[in-house]
């Protein structure tokens, strides 16, 4: 699951945990992919099925379709891919 990182809003009380997590793992994955990992760590209970965690995640996270923001520029998180604005 990919949680693209354009235009995300967070509670200020969560930012310290996010920054610490990103600083630990930014060399392993792009930040937008790490976002899914930190949500799993923060919201899933040990031993809980991935399906149950995903369902709770859907209920908690707010999503807008179509996206409120669009990518600007060419740089992409995916190696070898150029992302042009729409």
Automatic annotation (TrEMBL):
Which Gene Ontology cellular component annotation is one that this UniProt entry carries?
endoplasmic reticulum-Golgi intermediate compartment
MF annotations from Gene Ontology? acetylglucosaminyltransferase activity
| Residue ranges occupied by any MGAT4 conserved region domain in the UniProt entry | 5-86
What Gene Ontology terms for biological process does this UniProt record contain?
protein N-linked glycosylation
**Protein name according to UniProt:** MGAT4 conserved region domain-containing protein
According to its UniProt entry, this protein's organism is Ailuropoda melanoleuca (Giant panda)
């Amino acid at each position: 699951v990919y949680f693209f990182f354009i235009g995300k809003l967070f509670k200020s009380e969560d930012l310290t945990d996010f920054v610490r997590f990103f600083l630990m793992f930014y060399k392993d994955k792009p930040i937008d992919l790490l976002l899914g990992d930190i949500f799993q760590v923060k919201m899933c209970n040990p031993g809980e099925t991935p399906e149950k965690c995903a369902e709770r995640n859907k209920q908690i996270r707010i999503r807008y379709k179509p996206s409120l923001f669009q990518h600007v520029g060419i740089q992409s998180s995916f190696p070898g891919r150029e992302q042009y604005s729409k």
